[in-house]
Design brief:
The chain has one domain: NAD(P)-binding Rossmann-like Domain (Rossmann fold, 3-Layer(aba) Sandwich), CATH 3.40.50. α7 runs parallel beside α9 (266-277). The chain contains twelve helices and 14 strands. Helix content is 40%, strand content 17%. It starts with a strand and ends in a 13-residue tail after the last helix. By secondary structure, the chain is an alpha/beta fold. A seven-stranded parallel sheet has the order 3-2-1-4-5-6-11, with helices on both faces. Strands 12-9-14 form a three-stranded mixed sheet. The structure holds nicotinamide-adenine-dinucleotide (NAD) and galactose-uridine-5'-diphosphate. Galactose-uridine-5'-diphosphate is lined by residues 83, 85, 123-125, 176-177, 196-198, 201, 213-216, 227, 229, 266, 289, 292, 296.
C-alpha cells in the first residue's frame, strides 16, 4: 500500500490515477485545505478501482502513524503542502509550519512505523535565479522566497536523514511547471480565487470566467519579450512518480528534475491555447512580477538516463487537455456538471 499525502490536490489526483492504473493500492491523506474529495472520487471513476481516503493533517503525527500501521504502508509519496509564492512572502511562518514541520512529523511517523521509502515533491524554484540554462540537478540552489526555502530545507533534511540511516530511500522530484489535465476531463486544476499561475488563468479567461490575462512583462531578454517556462503535462509528471518509486532500490537520495527541456513563452502559451480551444484569450501587458526570472527550463537528461522517464506530451496537448477539463467544469469541482459513477472509498 502506498501512502499519498496531498492526494486530493491537483497533482495528487493525477498521481492517484497513475498509481491505481499501475495496480498499486493507495491510501490518500489530505486535510482538504486546498482541495475537494471530489477529485479522488473522479480518480476512482477513471481507473475503475477504489482507494482509501483519510481526512488527516500531516502535522498530526499520531494520525499518520495510525494510517501507516493500519494499511501496512510500504512507501510514501509526499505531496501535501502549501505552494503559493505570494502567500509565502506574506505568511512565512505558516509555510514553514505546514511544509517543514508537517514533513518532520510525517518522517517521524514513518520512522516509528519502519517505513523508510519516500518520494517528495520539490520544485524548480529551489534553483532560484538561473546561473545557466538548461538547469541540471547540479545547478547551485538559492531559492528567493519562503515557499522555495521550505522545499530547500526539506531537501537538506532528507539528505541528512539518509546520511544518518542507510535504510532510507528517498526520491526528490523537482517539478518545473505542471499544467494540463487528465484526458478524460474529469480531474484538473481547480484553484481557489484568482489563479496565481498562468495556465489556470488563461483557461478561466477562455471559458469566460475572467476578462483578460495580465502578462507580467514584455521586455525580458527573450525572443518575444515575455517570460519562458518549462511547462510539463501533469500526466507525464505523474508517471515520473511511478518511475522513481520503482527505481528506489538503493539506499540514499535520488534528486531528479521533472521537466520537458523545452521553454515556451507566455505569448506562445496564450496563442496555443487560443488555437486548440477556438476561444479568444484577451491579454494586456503589465509590469514584471517581482521575483520572476526571464527564462527557466530543465535539463531532463538525468531523469531519462536514471529512470528511463521522459515527458511525451506537447504544449498543444497540455492546452487541449487543460481546456477539456475547464470547459467541462467551468466552476471546477464546485460546479459538478459531471455525474460520475461514484465508486465508494474503501474507508470513508
Ligand atoms: N503546481 C505546481 O506548480 C507545483 C510546482 C512545483 C512543486 N509543487 C508541489 O507539488 C505538491 C502538490 O502541488 P499541487 O499543485 O497539487 O497543489 P495542491 O494545493 O492542489 O495540492 C496540495 C494538497 O495538499 C493538501 N495539504 C496541504 N497541507 C496539508 C497538510 N498539512 N496535511 C494534509 N494535506 C495538506 C491540500 O489540501 C491539497 O490537496 C506541493 O507540495 C507543491 O509545493 C507544485
Ligand atoms: O497572471 C499571470 C501569471 C503568470 N504570468 C507569467 O507566466 C509565467 C509562468 O508563471 P507561473 O506563475 O505560472 O509559474 P512560475 O514559473 O512563476 O512558478 C511556478 O513554477 C515554479 C517552478 O518552475 C515554482 O514551482 C512555483 O511555485 C510555481 O508557481 C511567468 O513568466 C509569469 O510572469 C503572467 O504573465 N501572468
Amino acid at each position: 500500500m502506498i501512502l499519498l499525502t496531498g492526494g486530493a490536490g491537483y497533482i495528487g489526483s493525477h498521481v492517484s490515477v497513475a498509481l491505481l492504473d499501475a495496480g498499486l493500492d493507495v491510501v490518500a491523506v489530505d486535510n482538504l485545505s486546498n482541495s475537494s474529495k471530489a477529485s479522488l472520487e473522479r480518480a476512482q471513476t477513471i481507473c475503475g478501482r477504489s482507494l482509501v481516503f483519510r481526512h488527516a493533517d500531516i502535522c498530526n503525527e499520531e494520525a499518520i502513524y495510525e494510517v501507516l500501521r493500519a494499511y501496512e504502508v510500504t512507501a510514501v509519496v509526499h505531496l501535501a503542502g502549501f505552494k503559493a509564492v505570494g502567500d509565502s512572502n506574506a505568511q512565512p511562518m505558516t509555510y514553514y509550519e505546514n511544509n517543514v514541520l508537517g514533513t518532520m512529523r510525517l518522517l517521524s511517523a514513518m520512522k516509528r512505523a519502519s517505513v523508510k521509502t519516500l518520494v517528495f515533491s520539490s520544485s524548480a524554484t529551489v534553483y532560484g535565479i538561473p546561473a545557466y540554462l538548461p538547469l541540471d540537478e547540479k545547478h547551485p540552489l538559492g531559492p528567493t522566497n519562503p515557499y522555495g526555502r521550505t522545499k530547500f530545507f526539506i531537501e537538506e533534511m532528507l539528505k541528512d536523514l539518509c546520511k544518518s540511516d542507510p535504510d532510507w530511500r528517498v526520491g526528490i522530484l523537482r517539478y518545473f511547471n505542471p499544467v494540463g489535465a487528465h484526458e478524460s476531463g474529469l480531474i484538473g486544476e481547480d484553484p481557489i480565487g484568482i489563479p496565481n499561475n498562468l495556465l489556470p488563468l488563461v483557461a478561466q479567461v477562455a471559458v469566460g470566467r475572467r476578462e483578460k490575462v495580465f502578462i507580467f512583462g514584455n521586455d525580458y531578454d527573450t525572443p518575444d519579450g515575455t517570460g519562458i517556462r518549462d511547462f510539463i503535462h501533469v500526466v507525464d509528471l505523474a508517471s515520473g512518480h511511478l518511475c522513481v518509486l520503482n527505481h528506489l532500490k538503493q539506499p540514499g537520495v535520488l534528486t531528479v528534475n521533472l521537466g520537458t527541456g523545452n521553454g515556451h513563452s507566455v505569448l506562445e502559451v496564450i496563442q496555443t491555447f487560443e488555437a486548440v480551444s477556438g476561444r479568444s484569450v484577451p491579454y494586456e501587458f503589465g509590469e514584471r512580477r517581482t521575483g520572476d526570472v526571464a527564462a527557466c527550463y530543465a535539463d531532463p537528461t538525468f531523469a531519462e538516463r536514471t529512470l528511463g522517464w521522459k515527458s511525451v506530451r506537447s504544449l498543444a496537448r497540455m492546452c487541449a487537455d487543460h481546456w477539456r477539463w475547464q470547459s467541462k467544469n467551468p466552476d471546477g469541482y464546485r460546479g459538478a456538471q459531471y455525474q460520475t459513477n461514484k465508486l465508494k472509498f474503501r474507508v470513508g
